[in-house]
Structures are given as C-alpha cells and as structure tokens.
Amino acid sequence: MENNIQCLTQACIQHDIGFHILDDNEHIARVNIGPGLIFRNNVTPFNTESMTKICLDKSQTYALLHQQIRMPETLSFLDIKVKPRYQRYLNYASLPDIVTHIERILSYPLVIKMNRGSLGQQVYLCHDPESITNALRTIFDKQIYPYDYLALAQEQIQLGQEFRAIFFRRKLLLCYERVVGDAVFGARYWDMHQGNVKTVTDTRVLDNITQFAQPALQLPGLHYVGLDLIRDDQGIWYLLEMNSGPLYDHYIKFCSRDDIVALYADILCTEREHYHTPAIRYDAS
Predict the structure, then answer these.
(1) Could you give the CA distance from residue 56 to residue 53 in angstroms, rounded to a whole number?
(2) pLDDT higher than 90, residue 63
(3) Rounded CA separation 30/37 (Å)
(4) Same-domain check for residues 164 and 239
(5) What is the C-alpha separation between 222 and 162, in angstroms, rounded?
(6) Which of 77, 106, 165, 256 could be joined to 175 by an S-S link, Cβ 3.0–4.6 Å?
C-alpha cells in the first residue's frame, strides 16, 4: 500500500469513516462519504479532469495564471522532430533558432526543463548556449526516458526559500519548506547531502502564502492542490507550478506520517460534514 492510501485509510479508521480497498494491489479506495469518494494512490476525486490535466502541464499552467499571479517568465518550445501532424505548431526550425530566441528573452543563468516532468526529472541549470542545446537535445531524445515533446525555458529566480503548500477548498492544511542546504539549485533536494524538509508553523509566512496564492485557489474545478512556491532572496513570492495529486513520501521520510494522516482527516471530516454522512464504528476485525 502506497503512503497516500495508507494515510487516507488510517484517517478513516481514526474518525470512524467506512472505506473499502477495491484492488489486490491496494491502490484504489472507496471512502463511504456522500455518494462515495474514490481515491487512486495520490489521485483524488476533488478536481475536474480539465484542471488535473492543466496542473500536469507546466506550459498550460503558466498560460492560465501568469497574468494573475507572479510566476517566473517561461517560454515553451516544441520538439523540432515532432510528428508531421503537429508540425503546424512549430515556430522554430532548429535548436540554434530556439537558443537564439531564449537568449533574446532570458538572461543567464536560466532553467531548461521538460514540460510534464515531476520529481526533478530533466531539469537543467544552464549558463551558456551549449548547455541549453544539450538540455534541449536530451529532453527531445525519444530514446531517453522520460521524453517530452515540449521543453520549457524559465527565468532562474535567486532562491531564498522554496515551499510546498497544500490547500483543500482554499484552506491551507500543510506547508513545508524544501531545504537545499548550500546548493544554489535544488531540483532534487531529497538527494542532496543537506537536503531536508521542514514543517512551516510561522503564522506570518502561512498568512503570506495564503494571500499570495488566492488567484490560483479561485480557479474553478481546483479544490485540492499542492502549490510549489519560491520566496526569492529579496522576499518576493513566485508560483512555480501546481500539483493536483501531491505525493507525501519525502515529507513522511523527513518529518511525520502523523501530519499526513491529520491532513487526510481534515479533508474527510470536511466532506463528511458537507454530505451530512454519519460516523460509523470501524470494526477492525
């Protein structure tokens, strides 16, 4: 049983909420609230399909939100060897053309990353045209996993602190800082010698995050989301991306499983009250 489902079911047991595991691998659970809430590992029933897909697509997230909330300037580029049916979307004929355009808009250092990546996959800090070219070539290489047909060039923000904030129905349930130690670039903080996670309890920081995040939280069809945020070295906030199905493996490793059980309990109790679903006495037998 994966961590998300395990914490979900523990929350059900603690709060006398009925549930059923629906598959042999214990990846799918039905929680007996209202018409029934279906969870699949980190995927929940709370967001619309369109918002879930937009959260998976960093380019579309930027298009949707960058005029409403501060985000690092981001450019997107289609694989120049994309299938013929998609070539009408190509704006550049070669990698050198892409590099020239990036240099015209962004300054060094800058970030090149795959559009639909997660867990720090295919993220590169680039300092010159050669490193941009190598990063693009790797992302667009169909023989390398994971491949993406869309690559992003992004303004590099001078990192002060990086946070993940979990919201449910616009309420902040959990916030933690991703600690990268002395590193200047921490795409995979959990692999770093000083990489760590630290729960945020400072009410001033939590209030600042909640206020800053409002444009994203007002999106229709987005009710459960993890926001990746940066506060730069001048104290200015940026939204990096949204995650409609946050995983908690690293938080559990560095901090506490109990916090994630409590997070799910908060979600489930909110939904139980909404649907006026009575509690049941969970029978451990």
Answers:
(1) 5
(2) yes
(3) 5
(4) yes
(5) 22
(6) 165
The 3 state secondary structure assigned to the chain is CCHHHHHHHHHHHHCCCCEEECCCCCCEEEECCCCCEEEECCECCCCCHHHHHHHHCHHHHHHHHCCCCCCCCEEEEECCCCCHHHHHHCCCCCHHHHHHHHHHHCCCCEEEEECCCCCCCCEEEECCHHHHHHHHHHHCCCCCCCCCCEEEEEECCCEEEEEEEEEECCEEEEEEEEECCCCCCCCCHHHCCCCEEEECCCHHHHHHHHHHCHHHHCCCCCCEEEEEEEEECCCCEEEEEEECCCCCHHHHHHCCHHHHHHHHHHHHHHHHHHHCCCCCCCCCC
**Could you tell me if 56 and 179 lie in one domain?**
yes
Q: How do residues 127-164 score in pLDDT, each as one tens digit?
A: 999 999 999 999 999 999 889 999 999 999 988 899 99
| 89 has a pLDDT exceeding 80 | yes
Q: Which tens digits make up the pLDDT trace of 192-206?
A: 555 689 999 999 999
Please report whether residue 67 resides in a domain.
no
Peptide bond before 215: cis, by omega within 30 degrees of 0? no
Q: Is residue 68 part of a domain?
A: no
CA 206 – CA 212 distance, rounded (Å) = 10
Whether 237 and 277 share a structural domain:
no
CA neighbours closer than 13 Å in the CB half-sphere of residue 176: 22
- Prediction pTM value: 0.91
